[in-house]
Amino acid sequence: MTSLIFNHGAWHSPECWSKVIPAFKQRGYRCFAPQLDFCGTEQPVDSLASTIHQIQTLIAQETTLGNDVVLINHSFGGSVGCSSVKGFTQKDPSRLTPNSGKVIGIIQLCAFMPQSGLSLYDMVDITKVFHHSEPDGWEGIHQDPVALFYNDMSPEDARYWKDCLLKHSTAAFKDSVNVYPGWADVPTSFIFCLRDGAIPLQIQEAMVEAAKGAGASITTRSLDTGHSPFFSKPEETTSVISESLKSLESK
């Protein structure tokens, strides 16, 4: 059975996946949703290295057991999730042990597609982003989080999740050294969120087209949701992830 690693995005926690993971556990999948240390810590991190190490530790644990692995990444979780597969794939098995499993695919839920040598800040128009660097090492948000992340939810639910947001490390957005385009090494499924207020659809599409242009094997699906479909439409989100997973497992 394939092991699944669910990676949340910036300012968020593994609770994002709380309405999605149970369905996969019921089907027998081993599921992991770590609290990634680029946010929610007492002090900001100084790079993505420790976050990538967190995910690679889980990948190594599961592949050593003989299990194949699929990563499901949301938003900025795509940057670290994709970067973590280096050396754990059929294309590059340099970190795998004999007779082990391997990473067989990536599912990107409106998630960033990292490029070698480019930080997140390098990939975006800095004059148009909704966040900014603070002197204390944290990344501030200067637009309404509800409009950005929760624009398709009830006011009550949106306020609840807004109040759950965590501090996020600025250095994670500025690290260009540790990023790796893992989507180039394994089949990848990208799920567009059509009403995303944080990563507009045209940016999602541009990232996918750039990856395809680089030779990546990418299939696409869509959800008519905002940035956080696991909150607003968890059953539909589970269904489209399931479809993507079946496709990856059959390759």
UniProtKB/TrEMBL annotation:
- Annotated PANTHER family: AB HYDROLASE-1 DOMAIN-CONTAINING PROTEIN-RELATED, ESTERASE_LIPASE_THIOESTERASE DOMAIN-CONTAINING PROTEIN
Q: Please give the InterPro entries that the UniProt record associates with this protein.
A: AB_hydrolase_1, AB_hydrolase_fold, Sec-Metab_Biosynth_Hydrolase
Give the organism, scientific name.
Penicillium cataractarum
What's this protein's name? Answer: AB hydrolase-1 domain-containing protein
UniProt domain AB hydrolase-1: residue ranges = 8-237
Q: Name one Pfam family in it.
A: Abhydrolase_6
GO biological process annotation, one example:
monocarboxylic acid biosynthetic process
Region Disordered, as annotated, extends over: 227-251
